[in-house]
Amino acid sequence: MIEILSYGAFFLTMALTYAVIALGLNLQWGQTGLFNVGIAGFVAVGAYVSAILTTPFSDGRLGGFDLPIVVGWIGGGLGAGFLCLLLGALTLRLRSDYLAIATFGAAVVIQLALLNLEALTGGPFGISFIPRPFADLSDRANLFAFANLAVMVVLVLACYAALQHLVRSPWGRVLRALREDETAARALGKNPVSYRLQAFAIGGCVMGLGGAAQGHFIGFIAPENYLPTLTFQVWAMLIIGGSGNMRGAVLGAVLVWAIWALSGSVVSSVFPADQQARAASLQIVLIGVSLCAVLLLRPRGILGEAGTLRRQPKATSTPSEGQNTHD
Amino acid sequence: MTAHREGPVLAARGLSRSFQGIQAVGDMSLSLGRGELLGLIGPNGAGKTTMFNMLAGSLAPDSGRIEVMGQDVTGEGAERRLSRGLGRTFQIPRPFPQMTVLENVLCGAQDQSGEKVMSAFFRPAQSRKDEARATEKARHLIDFLLLSHLIEQPASVLSGGQRKLLELARILMADPKVVLLDEPAAGVNPTLLEQIMERVVELNARGVSILLIEHNMEMITRLCSRVVVMALGRELAQGAPADVIRDPAVVRAYLGDAA
User: Fold this and answer.
1) Which residues contact A125 (CB under 8 A, 6 or more apart)?
2) Any idea what DSSP says for residue A219?
3) How would you label B201-238 residue by residue, b for 16+ Cβ within 10 Å and e otherwise?
4) Fewer Cβ atoms within 10 Å of its own Cβ: the N or the C terminal residue of chain A?
5) Nearest-CA residue of chain A relative to B158?
6) Distance (Å, rounded) from C-alpha A79 to C-alpha A39?
7) Any coiled-coil ranges, and where (chain B) (predicted)?
8) Alpha-carbon distances, residue B4 vs A68, B33, B100 (angstroms)
9) Could you tell me if B160 and B93 are in contact, meaning their C-beta atoms sit under 8 angstroms apart?
10) DSSP state of B156
11) What is the ipTM score, two decimals?
C-alpha cells in the first residue's frame, strides 16, 4: 500500500514539473496568442543552467558551482526568461506562423548546442549528480518522495497564484485587449510588441523554472530529454486541459503525464524487450488520440477558457431598449 | 510649453501619401485650433481616411510633418498618440468584443501602475488604488455616454451606435485634448445620432478640440463652425459650412461636371 502511495507521489511530482511548464505556455499562448513551438529549448536552458549552478565541481567540464538548489532554480528561470527576451526582441514582430518557425529553430539550435558544447554541458552524456531536494532523507524512500511532492505542490501553487494574479491585473487586461483587437489597443496607447515581449519572457521564465525543477528530481539531464517530443507533450497538456485557463494547464499536465506514464509501463510489461523501443511510439500515438478525442468532444479543452471568457453573452439579454435595432 | 498655448493643438503640414504609385493625399495641410470643432468632408475617395490615419499615427506619411500640442509626432506610432493628448475613434467601431463595457473603458486609462508588470506584482496597493480611481472615472464616462445599463455586458451585444459611444468613452479615459472622430454618424439610427451629437457638443464645450470626418452634411452644418473640403487628395475649399456647400468647386467635386 505504502509503495503505491510512494509511487503516486513520485508520479505526481513529475506531473507537476510539467504543470509548471504548461503554466508558462498558457501565459504565452493561452493569454497572449504567441505560438511557441520551441518549449523544449527553453525547458532545457532552465534545466542546464540550474544543473551547472548546483552540481559539485567536476573535472570534465566547466561549472559545477555547488550552489544551493534554490539559487539554481532561480538561475534556471532567469536564464530561460532572458533567452526568451532576446529571441522575442528579434522575432516578435513576425506573424504568428513565422514565430513558430523561429522558436522551433531556436529549440533545435539549443539542443545541438547542448550536445556539442561538451566543456559546459557534458555533451551527449549530459550532467549527472544534480542534487535532489531533501537528499538527506533519501534513505527513507517514502518520506523522501512525499517531501519532494510537497516542494512541487508549493512551486505549482506559487506559479499558479503569481500568473493568475498577473492575468487578472490591468496588465493581463491589456494582453486580452491586444489579443482581441490589436489596432484598437494601439489606439489606446498599448504597445503590442512590448507587452508580447513581457509575456513571452515571463512565460519562458516559468518554463525554465519547470525545467530546472525537473532536472533536480530526475538527478540527471542529457540533450535527448529535450527533443521536440517534449514540446508536443506540453502542447497536448495545455490543449487537453484547456488553453487560456491556468487550472486547465495543471489538470492537462497531470492527465497527459498519467497517459504517458501508464502507457509506458504497459508497453514495458506487454512487449518483449527487443520490441520495446518501437512500441514506445505507441505512447505518442496515445497522446495524439487523446488530443483528438478532447478536441472533438470539448474543443476548448476540458476546462475551457473559463478564466478568460468570464461573461459569455446570454442569448436572451436585451442590450438596450429601442436603440439596438442594428442601424 | 507656453509657446503653443495659442497655436493649433493639431497641425499637419504638407502631408503626402501614395499607395503603389497612386497618390491618396498630396501636400495636404490642416490645422485644428484650441477648442475648435472642425469638419473634414469630401466625396468618396477624396483621401479623408488616409489623412485621418496619418493624423492618428496608424499610417506613416511619405512626407510632411504632424504636430500635436506643438510637438513633432510625425515618426511616432499610433500607440504614442493618446499619451500626447490625441484620441481617435474608428469608422467601423472596434470594441474588445469579449470584454465588458466597463473593462473596455478601463483599457483607455493611461499610466496605470497595474498595467506595468513589475508594479502589478510588487506594488499591489498602488495598482489597486489606480484601478479603483480608473473604475470610478470609467463609471462616470459610461454614464455620460448613456451606457450605464450595459456596464457589465460584453461589448459584443452593443449596437453599432452604442459601440461608437463606447469608443468615445474609452478614449475619454485618457483626457485627450484632441479627439478625431471618424464618421460618428455612419450607420447610426436618428435617435442615437441626436444623442451622439449632443455629447460631441458637450465635449467641445468642455474644451476638447475635435476633428470630425463626416458624410452627414446636416451634422457638419450643425456642429462645425469651419469645414475643410478634400477632393483628389488635396484641399479644395474651406470656410463656414454654409458658404462651402455653395462653392461651385465643391458642388462639382461632389456631383461631377453635370452640376
Assistant:
1) A222
2) S
3) eebbeeebbbbbbbebeebbeebbeebbbbbebbbbbb
4) N
5) A319
6) 14
7) none
8) 60, 10, 39
9) yes
10) G
11) 0.90
CA A274 to CA B130: how far, in whole Å? 65
Which CATH fold topology does B10-93+176-256 show? Rossmann fold (3.40.50)
Any A CB within 8 A of B121 CB: yes
Q: How far apart are CA A49 and CA A121, in angstroms?
A: 9
The answer to whether residues A179 and A96 touch, using CB atoms and an 8 Å cutoff, is no
Residues of A with CB under 8 A from a CB of B: 162, 165-166, 169-171, 173-174, 176-177, 180-181, 183-192, 198, 202, 308-309, 311-313, 317, 319-320, 322-327
The residue length of chain A stands at 327
**Range of the structural domain that residue A173 is part of:** 2-227
List the beta bridge partners of residue B226: B38
- 3-state class of B234 per DSSP? strand
Q: Block means of pLDDT (10 residues each) for chain A, length 327 residues? A: 86 96 96 94 97 87 86 97 94 82 95 94 91 86 90 97 94 94 94 94 98 95 95 96 94 96 90 86 92 91 63 41 38
Strand order in the sheet with B209-213: B86-88, B178-182, B209-213, B37-41, B226-231, B234-239
Q: How many domains does chain A have?
A: 1
Secondary-structure breakdown of chain A: helix, strand, coil percentages, each rounded to the nearest 5: 75, 0, 25
